[in-house]
UniProtKB/TrEMBL annotation:
Limits of the Laminin G domain: 76-257, 262-436, 682-846, 901-1096
Domain Fibrinogen C-terminal, first and last residues per copy: 474-522
The F5/8 type C domain, residue ranges: 1-70
NCBIfam families: GGGWT_bact (NF040941)
Subcellular location: Cell junction, Paranodal septate junction; Membrane
Entry GO terms, CC: membrane; paranodal junction
Top-level division of the source organism's lineage: Eukaryota
Membrane-spanning residues: 1138-1159
Name used for this protein in its record: Contactin associated protein 2b
InterPro entries associated with the record: ConA-like_dom_sf, EGF, FA58C, Fibrinogen-like_C, Fibrinogen_a/b/g_C_dom, Laminin_G, Neurexin-like, Neurexin-related_CASP
CDD domains named among the record's database cross-references: EGF_CA (cd00054), LamG (cd00110)
Topology class, membrane: Single-pass type I membrane protein
Family: Belongs to the neurexin family.
């Protein structure tokens, strides 16, 4: 092995070591000399690394190395663009299931066919260069109606017209293909359903045979060299040398690869090349080829005798600026073409003579631009290429060119760049001769998820529009992982895009999220309309395909993480049997996940050929297990829920009994509904700072992202770390408010930190998102606080196999202490709960989990997560206590009042937009169309005002106790001459007992509930307004208000005032009595008189409601009572006492009789019978129903003949 070195000064290189001894090689000391070293032994290697160990300090550093291998026999064929090798098969047609094709090529052309073969049935295989990239096209067959399209196209590589050797290997087995270019392999499957490649007669290399050219679209033949062509074990180049194949199309067949006559020049941002030309000539002719990624740059500049000419690239277009000073700085602009900064070679020719100028781009004479010149030009004789840095008045304002040039012509003469390199002509600065150091930064494409990559000479950018992802490399999903996560962001029921695997391979998709219940339902809708009519012809089956507008992978991502899934199915029939029960072959079946066939119906389970009525024993015909199996002429229906989620969703239903005369059927398949997200709530508790969870090694991708939720009371600790031999990744909590993200590759290390304005060790859930990619590193906390830093390229392009992942700290540092959940790395959710089982110091789940565990916050209290439990926030309720169940009340002495100002003078409205106990929202404005008033009271005094709510207008709401102890609700919302009143005349509320009142209004509808009695509904008159305008204050016990007040309230009920207990007082989200009794609550509340805290005995009543027929206090709607508030019947009390005494006597006698009967029964049945039935079986209607309830996965058939009777 030999190698030569060309250096600008003396350098020493450490080249290789033999027998553990290092050898160094000296380089040359000038720019032209060559130093050759011959190695004693041959070396077998894929890569050679040169390490400079010393160099002279004189001048600049530079190196050029050439490596020569050992001589070997190479079958090289040179292609001139006309010759094509045609390899004819031994048989006229080949039906091939496996192919192996390999070759090496070298070219300076960006387009050309490398190989092509096709068959008369439409099959083909083609490999071609297109815009200096390899394009492999395969079609294993398409059918005539076009329903099966087999065309598959894959591209690989970039800038392959670099005059270097490139190796290609194509391996196909059936539809699986490995496409390898320069040791980079792409694996893919061809489209369609066929496995064989059917080729006719031949396969060609270097171009298309003459027979197929008319249908090929005029593709160019290959120009360059090929080596080592093999096709399914046949060495094609060897056959060519031995004249075993047809080569008649070659003009001059040669078995060598001539060196290219082109010599490129590479320019950076500080380079220029100065070349001489003709002086005082009336003709200016300059042409060149260039390639670049930058949209702007100076290609050529020359000074004229009077003025100057500039040829450049502006926004991807070729532009020519001519400044003629003789004509008072006349400026002439010419532009042509666009998008020339695409990295491809483009040619440009500028010719100015006599009184006109012509500009031709890419040799397209038809698009040549011509323009007139006011004077005849006179050349200056000096031409600058790539840049112009002399400090003159005519200095160009164009940016310097970054890219490559070749084939430079001045005055129609090709410039000899070898002579330029030897210093014989021209000068140059910072250029690289005989090389083009262009790099395609978009190959491989670092823009993920089909993001569009664009680039300049120094960097690339990603356009993520329409992908559903964001970030520097389109790595981060724009959407949440599930409906569960949307709910915890405060979203309401609607359609949302979800991305279950985040940055993973599954694309986002749209679902409907139902958040009206305590649990969140995810609905995946299909395209089958309800009650779709089913018909079949020729006594065949009717097949109904059901599509969900998403892939099977997307569907599986929802069902696999769901706790429960269901899908409603219904079959309405008239003389159309369904399952042909009990023992027949089912007429109807359906396909679920993985196209598995199932013959059970909604309401039943796997392995049980029944419908819901067969499980519940209430079918139309007891002999059958489905209503439709009775084959009746009347319409019947079998419906129910399919709940075995591993079988869902329903993708196809086959109906087999609709072809008979009179048979009709209608099918309904509802949306797939799933609840719960086990990935979102997958949690573990770390109880020791030395504990951690261990996971196997992870491969570092080009982009790596980590996200999780945590809560802790500790000020610091390591969340996770991944340590490798040359790399690491580390996330930790510091100082209780800082999250630190650090990673390193090789000698590089990068660190990002985000500080929270509030403590993070507050036992609340916080979210951490960290990402590193080839362009930047990002750390985000709680979706708000964010830090971004650019990363360097070193070490990021090649993934490295990391060592084990440790959740917690395994390297001796203090680990995380608290709860962590929803840990996801590169789209993969880690099962913390499963790994925590059996791990010391780590427990599965997280105590205090507000959603996964039963929580006991009542009366609208908000559950707050804690490290070792949870607490209830009762601030927006009228209750106190650990579970918001303790009544807050007060005893009012005569004349005592509590005032709470909702709308202070000149101030904003106090009510906020929060949900009240019943879910009624409160507008942030002072005008209400719905409100809820809840309170409890007990008193002996009457009359009195319990609650009065005033306004800036004459609107008000009042609840009063009248003289006879009955309750009255008064609404005055305008539009009526008198307030609308609701009189509860049939109950004496002033009896010293606690009473509960709930008044809810929505527009005109008023719902009233007293104690445990049924809700009564009332309607405001049509003349009444529905808006409670400018709500101002809440008064409890007595009214003390300025302005106009209803005189009846003041005269009848306000004096002397309420005396008794009030508790649980809440108006929408405001608890005025609680604010008055709790000194730690800052609120616009004031108290006059004596108010003593008391719960008033207002415990929740446990008496269940009576039926209307048995309720002695029940009054039929429309009944009119003629009660006098001022008069009471004295003997009425005596009659009531007599009735009550009689009732008590009857009850005591009944209880004694029941006790005697129970004792006799117990002595008759002395034994006891115990069973091992599953929980829930005792409430099931039958054994089948019990099995379905307790085990939806039950697959055994139930034998109806086995029954037991107990006597």
């Amino acid at each position: 092995m030999l190698f030569d070195s060309f250096l600008k000064q003396k350098m020493h290189f450490l080249f290789f070591k033999t027998f553990m001894l290092f050898q160094t090689f000296e380089g040359n000391v000038n720019s032209e000399g060559v130093v050759r070293h011959e190695l004693q032994y041959a070396i077998l290697a894929r890569y050679i690394r040169f390490i400079p160990v010393d160099w002279s300090r004189e001048g600049r550093i530079g190196v050029r190395l050439e490596l020569y291998g050992c001589s070997y026999w190479a079958d090289v064929i040179s292609f001139d663009g006309h010759g094509v090798i045609s390899y004819r098969f031994r048989s006229k047609k080949l039906k091939i299931v496996k192919d192996v094709i390999s070759l090496k090529f070298r070219t300076t052309a960006g387009n050309g066919v490398l190989l092509h073969g096709e068959g008369q049935q439409g099959d083909y295989i083609s490999l071609e260069l297109h815009r200096a990239r390899l394009l492999l096209s395969i079609n294993l067959g398409s059918n005539q109606n076009g329903s099966i399209q087999g065309h598959t196209a894959v591209t690989s590589g970039s800038l392959l017209d670099d005059d270097h050797w490139h190796s290609v290997v194509i391996e196909r087995y059936r539809r699986n293909v490995n496409f390898t270019l320069d040791h980079h392999t792409q694996q893919f499957r061809t489209n369609g359903e066929f496995d064989h490649l059917d080729l006719d007669y031949e396969i060609s290399f270097g171009g298309l045979p003459v027979s197929v050219k008319p249908t090929s679209g005029g593709k160019e033949n290959f120009v360059g060299c090929m080596e080592g062509i093999t096709y399914n074990g046949e060495n094609i180049t060897s056959l060519v040398r031995r004249k075993k194949v047809d080569t008649t199309s070659f003009r001059n067949l040669t078995f060598s690869c001539a060196e290219s006559n082109t010599s490129p020049v590479f320019f950076n941002s500080t380079s220029f090349l100065r070349l001489p030309g003709q002086t005082d000539s009336d003709t200016l002719s300059v042409s060149l080829s260039f390639r670049t990624w930058n949209p702007n740059g100076l290609l050529m500049f020359t000074a004229l005798a009077d003025g100057w000419v500039e040829l450049g690239l502006t926004e991807g277009k070729i532009t020519v600026y001519m400044n003629v000073t003789q004509k008072k700085n006349t400026r002439i602009d010419i532009s042509s073409s666009s998008g020339l900064n695409d990295g491809q070679w483009h040619s440009v020719h500028l010719n100015a003579l006599e009184n006109y100028a012509m500009l031709t781009v890419d040799g397209d004479e038809a698009s040549t631009v011509r323009t007139a010149i006011p004077i005849q030009i006179q050349t200056g004789g000096t031409y600058y290429f790539g840049g112009y840095f002399l400090q003159t008045n005519t200095r160009s304002h164009q940016r310097s060119f970054q890219g490559c040039m070749q084939m430079i012509h001045i005055d129609d003469h090709l410039v000899d760049l070898k002579a330029v390199e030897q210093g014989l002509i021209g000068t140059f600065e910072n250029v690289s001769l005989d090389m083009c150091a262009i790099i395609d930064r978009c190959v491989p494409n670092h823009c993920e998820h089909n993001g569009h990559c664009s680039q300049t000479w120094d960097a690339f950018t990603c356009n993520c529009s329409g992908t559903g992802y964001t970030g520097a490399t389109c790595h981060t999903s724009l959407y949440q992982q599930s409906c569960e996560e949307y709910k915890h962001q405060g979203k309401s029921s609607a359609s949302y895009w979800i991305d279950p695997d985040g940055s993973g391979s599954i694309n986002p998709f749209r679902v409907h999220c139902d958040m009206t219940e305590d649990v969140v339902w995810t609905s995946l809708r299909n395209d089958l309309s309800p009650q779709t009519s089913v018909s079949s012809a020729d006594k065949g089956n009717a097949v109904l395909q059901i599509s969900y507008n998403m892939t099977d992978e997307q569907m599986l991502s929802v069902t696999s993480s769901a706790e429960y899934c269901e899908q409603y199915v219904a079959y309405a029939c008239r003389m159309s049997r369904l399952l042909n029960s009990p023992d027949g072959v089912p007429f109807t079946w359906w396909l679920g996940r993985a196209n598995e066939k199932h013959s059970y119906w909604g309401g039943s389970g796997p392995g049980i050929q029944k419908c819901a009525c067969g499980i519940e024993h209430n079918c139309t015909d007891p002999k059958h297990y489905c209503n439709c199996d009775a084959d009746l002429r009347a319409w019947k229906e079998d419906s129910g829920l399919l709940v075995y989620k591993d079988h869902l969703p329903v993708s196809q239903v086959v109906v087999g009994d609709t072809s008979r005369a009179g048979s009709e059927a209608k099918l309904t398949v509802g949306p797939l509904r799933c609840r719960g997200d086990s990935n979102f709530w997958n949690a573990a508790s770390f109880t020791s700072p030395a504990s951690y969870l261990h996971y196997p090694s992870l491969r570092d991708e080009t982009s790596t992202d980590v996200s999780f939720y945590f809560k802790t009371s500790s000020t610091h600790g390591v969340f996770l770390e991944i340590l490798g031999s040359t790399s690491f990744l580390h996330i930790e909590l510091r100082a209780g408010s800082v999250v630190l993200f650090s990673f390193g590759i090789g000698t590089e290390k990068m660190e990002l930190s985000v500080r929270s304005p509030v403590p993070l060790n507050d036992d609340q859930w916080h979210r951490v998102e960290a990402e590193k990619n080839i362009k930047e590193a990002v750390l985000q906390l709680n979706g708000q606080h964010r830090m971004v830093r650019p990363t360097t390229l070193q070490g990021h392009a090649k993934p490295e196999l990391y060592s084990d992942l440790s959740v917690g700290a395994s390297s001796g540092q203090r680990g995380f202490l608290g709860c962590m959940r929803a840990l996801k790395i590169n789209g993969v959710t880690f099962d913390l709960e499963e790994r925590a089982k059996g791990t010391p110091g780590v427990n599965p789940g997280c105590q205090g989990h507000c959603n996964s565990y039963r929580m006991h916050c009542r009366n609208g209290g908000k559950c707050v997560e804690q490290y070792n439990g949870y607490s209830c926030d009762c601030s927006l309720t009228a209750y106190d206590g650990p579970f918001c169940t303790d009544d807050v009340g007060g005893y009012f002495e005569t004349g005592t009042l509590v005032r709470y100002d909702l709308l202070p003078e000149g101030g904003p409205f106090a009510l906020k937009d929060v949900k009240s106990l019943s879910g009624v929202g409160v507008s942030s404005e002072a005008n209400l169309t719905q409100e809820e008033l809840v309170f409890s009271f007990s008193t002996y005094s009457a009359p009195s005002i319990l609650v009065y709510i005033s306004s800036r207008t004459q609107d008000y709401l009042a609840v009063v106790v009248r003289h006879n102890g009955t309750l009255q609700i008064r609404y005055s919302l305008g539009g009526l001459t008198e307030p609308y009143t609701i009189d509860v005349d049939h109950r004496n509320m002033a009896n010293g007992q606690p009473h509960f009142v709930n008044i809810t209004r929505n527009l005109r509808e008023i719902r009233l509930q007293l104690d445990h009695y049924p809700v009564s509904t009332y309607m405001l008159p049509e003349a009444s307004d529905t808006q409670f305008t400018l709500v101002k204050s809440i008064f409890l016990g007595k009214v003390f208000e300025t302005g106009q007040i209803d005189p009846i309230l003041i005269e009848r009920y306000n004096t002397p005032g309420f005396m008794g207990c009030l508790s649980r007082v809440q108006f929408n989200s405001v608890a005025p009595l609680k604010a008055a009794l709790r000194s730690n609550i800052a609120a616009p509340v004031s108290t006059h008189g004596i108010l003593v805290p008391s719960n008033c005995g207002a415990s929740p009543l446990t008496i269940s409601p009576m039926a209307s027929a048995k309720d002695p206090w029940h009054i039929e709607a429309g009944a009119v009572f003629n009660l006098n508030e001022d008069k009471f019947s004295g003997d009425g009390v005596d009659r009531n006492s007599a009735v009550i005494g009689g009732i008590i006597s009857v009850v005591i006698f009944s209880v004694l009789c029941i006790m005697v009967f129970v004792i006799r029964h117990m002595f008759r049945h002395k034994g006891s019978y115990h069973t091992n039935e599953a929980k829930g079986a005792d409430s099931a209607d039958s054994a089948d129903a019990a099995i379905i309830v307790n085990d939806p996965a039950f697959t055994e058939t139930i034998d109806e003949s086995k029954k037991e009777w107990f006597i």
